[in-house]
Amino acid sequence: MIQKIEELSMNALPALSTVFLNGWILRFANGYSKRANSVNPIYPCSTDTEKNIEICESLFRKNHLATVFKLTECTEAYKIDEILQGKGYVYEAKTNVMLKNISKFQIKEQSKKNAVIYKGFKDDWFEAFVHMNQISYPNAVTLHKMLQCIVPDTYYGYILEDGKIAAVALGVAERGYVGVYDVGVHKEKRRRGLGMKIMEDLIYTALQDGCTHSYLQVVDSNEEAKALYEKLGYEKQYSYWYRVKNLGK
């Protein structure tokens, strides 16, 4: 299951460049997000692990990026984690991957009217997301390119209030699983359940298109978000974390 969800999540947010290195997947996207700028050892290394790490470090240095490893709860990753710790890599951002069976998911008819779901990229969704998260112009340019590169089916959802976008969410569907990403609510519209509403509508739309499961990722320390997702029926499947070696170290 871990390998499958990791594949789905990489397809859901494509890097701008990808290198396949002896079983590991190296992703590069101008430094926008650790997830899209990291080494992903989701398959066994076919050569010496420490030698592979050295090659990774050289490639990230070449791209003027910190070397970042995204590691999951599997035997291979734990071994790599121990090596990286010995090399001075810093542990960061433990994140939980949560899963929900949506085959019997239902929402009230009234709730279906609260959100608009588009099956394809929407400029107004993107502009609202960038504004809500105060993303810098260079990072916004990179993110725009990444979103345009998504191959699986996409669902760009938002809730309108007074003619303005109050909440957004992105869904990416593949192999019967819809990943829910980038849930955001305007700072003046929070604590009114809009995040839950947009997620419910997005999940319902994906269900109508044949999806049977939904997954998402939440930082382990974000207790409020975890409580929301658990209320929606999501259950933790596994965790991942990052090991980071900054430039010059």
From TrEMBL:
Xref: CDD domains: NAT_SF
Protein name: N-acetyltransferase domain-containing protein
InterPro entries in alphabetical order: Acyl_CoA_acyltransferase (IPR016181), GNAT_dom (IPR000182), Rv0428c-like_C (IPR056935), YpeA/RimI_acetyltransf (IPR050680)
The N-acetyltransferase domain, residue ranges: 116-249
Pfam family, one: Rv0428c_C
Signal peptide: none
GO molecular function, one term: acyltransferase activity, transferring groups other than amino-acyl groups
Keyword set includes Acyltransferase: yes
Alphabetical UniProt keywords: Acyltransferase, Transferase
